[in-house]
Design goal:
This protein is an alpha+beta fold and 239 residues long. It folds into 2 domains: 74 residues, Gyrase A, domain 2 (2-Layer Sandwich); 149 residues, Cyclophilin (Beta Barrel). Helix content is 24%, strand content 31%. It is built from 5 helices and 14 strands. The strands form 3 sheets. Strands 12-9-10-7-6-13-5-14 form an 8-stranded mixed beta sheet. It has a 4-stranded antiparallel beta sheet with strand order 1-2-4-3, covered by helices on one side. Strand 9 and strand 10 form a beta hairpin. The model has no long low-confidence stretch (mean pLDDT 91).
Length: 239
């Protein structure tokens, strides 16, 4: 059976939101991952999409929900009978160039945290991160948790544009901007790897509950990878 008390609410005429305790927790993420698999197995023909991040799961159905209370009862029953399975997760090793040309906030973080830039990079690459979800942009990975020495508030003033591929930190999280966009996180480097492609199916291969670790590359290696793109699966390790 499920391990937590969950709350099920109607999110839209054709969507349901399920909430777990409001915590950043690998155990909660495992529980949500298992439940998402059970839901797909039981309701495949009725579901357009399932998306989850941190402690909530959104189910989008292919038609308007006629009787929410009945659907809610069905979901609660599925959860109560759920068996916990060990889910296969992928581990991704993603290259990042931390040159100051790309790590435009490294100097600020160094002063704010009283750390050498070399230490910031070491703390960032020596951590294995869990993919807690995908949003606020299509393909934006929420990765946690940061080494305690790197925890830092968001920027006071968000930038109007953060470059595609920028690797950034804020709070207890790190993430990769999949496209040019506004952003309020502190940028510490840049990856040459395209993680999101709207024209492929699925558009992103990295999934919630996967793990990810960064490794440092030089500026020369960065531009070589930009000019000679590498398949994302080159950076995949099956755990």
């Amino acid at each position: 059976m499920g391990n937590y008390k969950i709350h099920i609410k109607q999110y839209s005429p054709s969507a349901v939101l399920i909430e777990w305790p409001s915590l950043i927790s690998k155990e909660i993420l495992e529980d949500i991952s298992n439940f998402s698999i059970i839901i797909r197995k039981n309701k495949t023909e009725q579901i357009v999409d399932i998306n989850f991040v941190y402690c909530s799961l959104l189910i989008i159905y292919n038609k308007k929900i006629i009787n929410f209370n009945t659907l809610k009862s069905e979901l609660q029953e599925l959860y109560s009978k759920m068996k916990f399975d060990v889910i296969k997760r992928n581990n991704w090793n993603i290259p990042v160039c931390y040159d100051l040309e790309f790590g435009i906030d490294l100097s600020y973080i160094s002063t704010f945290k009283q750390l050498e830039i070399k230490q910031i990079i070491e703390f960032h690459i020596n951590q294995k991160y869990t993919v807690y979800g995908i949003g606020f942009l299509p393909g934006f990975l929420y990765l946690g948790e940061l080494n305690q020495n790197l925890i830092i508030p968001r920027r006071d003033t968000p930038r109007n544009n953060v470059d595609k591929g920028s690797v950034a930190i804020a709070g207890n999280q790190t993430g990769i901007y999949p496209q040019n966009s506004p952003g309020g996180w502190h940028v510490i480097g840049k990856t040459p790897i395209q993680l999101f492609n709207a024209f492929q199916n699925p558009p992103i291969e990295i999934m919630p509950n996967d793990t990810l670790q960064f490794y440092q590359i030089s500026k020369k290696e960065y531009f070589k990878m930009i000019h000679d793109p590498i398949d994302i699966f080159t950076f995949l390790q099956i755990e």
